[in-house]
Amino acid sequence: MTKLGNLALLAIRLGVGGTLIAHGTQKLFGWFDGPGIDGAAEGFKQMGFPDPKRAAQMSGLAEAAGGASLALGLGTGVGGAAVAGNMAVAASVHAPNGFFAQGGGFEYPAVLGLTGSALALGGPGTLSLDAATRNVFNKPWMRILALAGSLGFAVYTASSRQAPPVPVETTTTVE
User: Fold this and answer.
1) Nearest in space to 34 (alpha carbons), one of 5, 60, 53
2) How buried is 45 (Cβ within 10 angstroms: 0-12 exposed, 13-18 middle, 19+ buried)?
3) What is the pTM of this model?
4) 174 found inside a domain
5) Does 154 map to a domain?
6) Which of 38, 101, 138, 167 is deepest in the core (most CB within 10 A)?
7) 65-93, pLDDT tens digit by residue?
8) pLDDT tens-digit series, residues 90-149
9) Residue 166: band (very low, low, confident or very high) from pLDDT cuts 50, 70, 90
10) Beta-carbon count within 10 A of 127 CB
11) What mean pLDDT is predicted for residues 19-23?
12) Mean pLDDT over all residues of the chain?
């Protein structure tokens, strides 16, 4: 790969990884005006996840740790797979709203997930900690196993969602 190609991979890793770190830490710690774990859990409850606090924790961890892995280019196959699986679940939540993000669609998580998958499969390039460590944490078999595991996780998690609870309307009569 050319020097410019490796620089392009670094830019993609830093942009996508940094975005994911920010989203994950919003959920986990409330940073960047995020909801924190309790607020994120409430959102996951409204989306129909059976254990919303655990779902919020796992989603935040996949985003923050997966994003850090991509940004650093360390364990890129596993980090990219974590991002891909998490974003597949997010895309399934948004799919009923169509494609475009401005309508609540799955466009945004799809782009992040596909980028995570591509980096997991293709690797981080030479401007990475994986390259500096001779890919000790980024072997081809690790990439394939991590992507297969994340696909299984995504299918299981998405299928475990229940229909979100319908708000109960109270009516009062004035006599």
Assistant:
1) 60
2) middle
3) 0.90
4) no
5) yes
6) 138
7) 999 999 999 999 999 999 999 999 999 99
8) 999 999 999 999 999 999 999 999 999 999 999 999 999 999 999 999 999 999 999 999
9) low
10) 17
11) 98
12) 94
Take residue 81 and report the two structure tokens written for it.
């797979």
Please name the residue that has the structure tokens 């196993």. 145
Domain annotation covers residue 97: yes
Tokens of 119: 């980096």
Calpha distance 97→125 (Å, rounded): 36
Helices 76-94 and 52-72, packing angle to 10 deg: 140
| Domain interval for residue 37 | 3-160
In a domain, 173, yes or no: no
pLDDT grade, residue 23 (50/70/90)? very high
Report how far Cα 110 is from the mean position of its chain's Cα atoms: 10
Q: What is the CA radius of gyration of the chain?
A: 18
pLDDT of residue 163: 75
Which pair of structure tokens corresponds to residue 167?
Answer: 């708000």
**Total number of domains constituting the chain:** 1
Return the pLDDT at 48.
95
